[in-house]
Design brief:
single chain; about 170 residues; mainly alpha; Ferritin; about 75% helix; binds MU-OXO-diiron
Length: about 170
Amino acid sequence: MNQELSQAMSDQINKEYYSAFLYLSMANWCSAEGFKGASNWMYAQYQEELAHAQGLYQYMQMRSEPVNFKSIDDPSGSWDNLLDVFKKTLAHEQFVTESINNLASVAMRANDHAAYIFLQWYVTEQVEEEGNANDLIDKLTLAADNTNALLNIDDQLAARVFAAPVIPYLE
Ligand code: FEO
């Protein structure tokens, strides 16, 4: 594999683990604030990010490429309210989308068709990731400070059940 691409793939694995850690931190905050449904949603998102990292890791194994693990930044934070949590989620997903798009561009420039095709799963996934956060921002903006509306949204978030994503090469 092209050296720049290999390093960028490796870096992406670290970014996915940071994403997992960030959402676990948000799950923890939501739980402490009494939003058990949002905590459940964030915990499922944490599991989703772990799967994203695993998918990239397995791909690198398949290609006999090394992975350079780095320490994960401190994800702990304090958020103003539930709307703020999802605004920060969207901002983070936009950052990840840019990173994935850059990665796909590196694969394209390296003429690595296999990696480029593999990365399309992640390109498509990011549309859903941003869409989910946007949807929740809309609902939470409408709810504003209405406690009943917020608890109703929290109940909806409690229904999320993690389903392992079907990522190419990830058994
Ligand atoms: Fe791994 Fe939320 O994108």
